[in-house]
Write a structure and sequence with these properties.
Blueprint: E1 2-3, H1 7-19, H2 22-32, E2 37-40, H3 42-48, E3 55-60, H4 64-74, E4 77-79, E5 87-92, E6 95-101, E7 103-106, E8 115-118, H5 122-127, E9 137-139, E10 146-148, H6 153-159, E11 161-162, H7 168-174, H8 177-189, E12 192-193, H9 195-204, H10 213-224, H11 229-238, H12 242-245, H13 248-251, H14 265-278, H15 288-296, H16 301-304, E13 306-307, E14 313-314, H17 318-332, H18 337-349, H19 363-373, H20 377-386, H21 393-417, H22 428-435, H23 441-457, H24 462-475
Parallel strand pairs: 3-6, 11-12
Antiparallel strand pairs: 1-10, 2-3, 2-9, 4-5, 5-6, 7-8, 9-10, 13-14
Helix pairs in contact: 1-3, 2-4, 8-10, 8-11, 14-15, 14-20, 15-18, 15-20, 17-18, 19-21
């Protein structure tokens, strides 16, 4: 269905003019060279929803090399890294654009690389889009702007429904990552997934295995950073996709939570994720590290489950096993080293607080808690608080009060001792001067000793620290 400006088209144009005025000048550049240009996909969807950003997607009948030439005269910066797939990117002012030649792409049964074919019409291009809500376009170069919606994306937008332009099987065969994308859009937009799409997701879930780990990671990250990741994670688990990309999560369904507050650890983990998101303001806003840690914090339970006499169940050291499993999974998904280190550290520490009863920790124990959390102390605060999912209001209040006491003790020690900068009382140069040694492993051991001393006893000052260092040195048989 191609129409002159209807209500949806008018809304999209108004949003485009207000938030992306440079689009019209780009369209003029293509029109002057005899080519078409249309705003397309998620940009049209977001324009209709009134949430258009300055990152715009266009489609054109111009070959990729011609698009690059046109963009070179219009933009301040041009990137053609995706030109082999028909896409040229550019920026001008605060507007970023991607211009893609009409195309379709498909994957062979075992191939990880798509085969790209260029199309002849925008309708053909839209047919190969992932979902109908992304298969709308706003043609900008043929007289008055035209709203193009051959697959009733506007109707599905109103229904808040995810459907595919063709059959779901065809769409998912073209790019199996769309199976995950359905869950991601459902989470981001709070949409339902049509019955036929759900069936195809279940039947074609194994096709995800041909997609590169990097693309899977990016899609999973977008889902987790959406406003309702619980919904998307549930879709991945219920359709069997999680078994392929994050098998540790569906395995939690088989376990009984030791506190019996949820029917299984899986539901508990989703609740912890929800509660961690509610506390993210403490971290400055949406945070991938805390969301990953919350979702994965109990994945060590299936391997450590032990049934006790009388019907009880224990999961001893599940935090240690969980940290190892998380590290393996995140490495397989090609997450960066800093993210992996942060998430695994939080998982390994998430039970530490439960040793803090009625404030009986020594200052030394509090210092170690801060030292071990490092730069992610605030994340650990959020995860520990989120991990309290009891429905017993009295118990929840007691846990919250106890953790508040710990945080207050940390704040006091932070102010008195600069805990965030825990260092030995002497530095390496001073150690070498006092012991009369050259740079070596011994210097590192001496600094480790001084740091442990600092944690146990608080700040000593240079002279007492030197005396303790000499005692340690003499105890090793040194002069």
């Amino acid at each position: 269905m191609t129409t002159a400006l209807g209500a949806a088209g008018e809304l999209a144009i108004a949003s485009l003019i207000e938030r992306a005025p440079m689009a019209s000048s780009l369209a003029d550049s293509f029109r002057k060279q005899g080519f078409t240009l249309a705003l397309v996909g998620g940009s049209v969807r977001d324009a209709i929803l009134g949430r258009l950003s300055n990152d715009l997607d266009f489609t054109t009948n111009a070959p990729p090399n011609i698009s690059r030439t046109i963009l070179s005269t219009w933009a301040e910066n041009v990137w053609d890294i995706g030109i082999a797939f028909g896409t040229v990117a550019a920026s001008r002012g605060n507007t970023s654009v991607e211009v893609t030649t009409y195309r379709s792409e498909s994957y062979e049964a075992e191939s990880r690389k798509p085969e790209v074919k260029y199309g002849k019409s925008i309708e053909e291009d839209l047919l190969r889009r992932d979902f109908t809500i992304n298969a709308m376009a706003l043609e900008l170069t043929q007289g008055l702007p035209k709203f193009i919606d051959p697959y009733d994306g506007l109707g599905d937008l109103a229904l808040r429904l995810l459907r595919t332009p063709g059959t779901p099987e065809e769409s998912f065969s073209d790019d199996p990552l769309r199976i995950m994308r359905a869950a991601r859009f459902a989470s981001q937009l709070d949409f339902n997934v049509s019955h036929e799409v759900l069936i195809a997701m279940k039947e074609m879930a194994p096709r995800i295995s041909i997609i590169s780990a990097e693309r899977v990671r990016e899609e999973l990250t977008k889902l987790l950073m959406s406003k309702n990741p619980r919904f998307g994670i549930s879709l991945l688990v219920d359709t069997g996709i999680a078994d392929m990309i994050l098998p540790e999560v569906p395995k939690l369904k088989l376990e009984i939570d030791e506190h019996h507050h949820h029917k299984d650890v899986y539901e508990h983990s989703l609740t912890v994720l929800d509660q961690a998101i509610e506390l993210e303001d403490r971290l400055g806003g949406p945070n991938l590290v805390i969301r990953l840690a919350a979702l994965l914090h109990d994945i060590g339970k299936p391997k450590t489950r032990n049934l006790l006499a009388g019907g009880g169940v224990s999961f001893h050291h599940h935090e240690v096993v969980g940290a190892r499993l998380a590290k393996e999974r995140l490495k397989a998904l090609r997450f960066d080293g800093n993210t992996i280190e942060a998430v695994t550290s939080l998982i390994s520490l998430h039970l530490r607080f439960h040793g803090y009863k009625d404030g009986e920790w020594t200052d030394s124990a509090v210092r170690r808690y801060v030292r071990d959390a490092g730069d992610f102390l605030d994340h650990l605060h959020v995860l520990t608080r989120a991990d309290c999912t009891t429905r017993n209001k009295k118990k929840a209040a007691a846990l919250s009060a106890t953790y508040q006491d710990l945080e207050e003790r940390i704040s006091v020690l932070m102010e008195e001792e600069e805990l965030s900068k825990l260092r030995p009382d002497l530095d390496g140069a001073e150690v070498m001067r006092i012991l009369n040694v050259k740079p070596s492993r011994l210097v590192g051991e001496a600094l480790d000793f001084l740091l442990e001393l600092r944690i146990d006893r608080g700040p000593l000052g240079p002279q007492p620290a030197e005396e303790e260092l000499m005692k340690w040195w003499e105890a090793r048989g040194k002069k």
